[in-house]
Write a structure and sequence with these properties.
The protein has helices at residues 24-32, 56-66, 69-79, and strands spanning 2-9, 16-21, 45-53. The chain is an alpha+beta fold. The chain has a single domain (2-79), classed as GIY-YIG endonuclease (3-Layer(aba) Sandwich). The longest helix has 11 residues, at 56-66.
């Protein structure tokens, strides 16, 4: 499976991150060990939402969309926790 995931920082709840992986547990652990330049400043992270795809291209395309302006608006409205900032 291929996963597109949305993270939220527990140290600064306004910080979010969208990514792609084939191993969700391992990838979250790597983020929380500070192995990603993009997420190391706002440790720790939790998974807010993830979507599983059987097709890698669809997953990568969806990740790219979520990182676009309209995808960020969609994510904020439809995929992120309702009580979160």
């Amino acid at each position: 499976m291929f996963y597109v995931y949305l993270l939220r920082s527990l140290s600064d709840r306004s910080k979010t991150y969208t990514g792609f992986t084939t191993d969700l547990k391992q990838r979250l652990a790597a983020h929380n060990r500070g192995e990603s330049v993009h997420t190391s400043k706002f440790l720790p992270w939790r998974i807010e939402t993830y979507l599983a795809f059987s097709d890698e291209k669809l997953a990568r395309d969806f990740e790219k969309y979520l990182k676009s302006g309209s995808g960020q608006a969609f994510s904020k409205k439809r995929l992120r926790g309702l009580s979160d900032p």
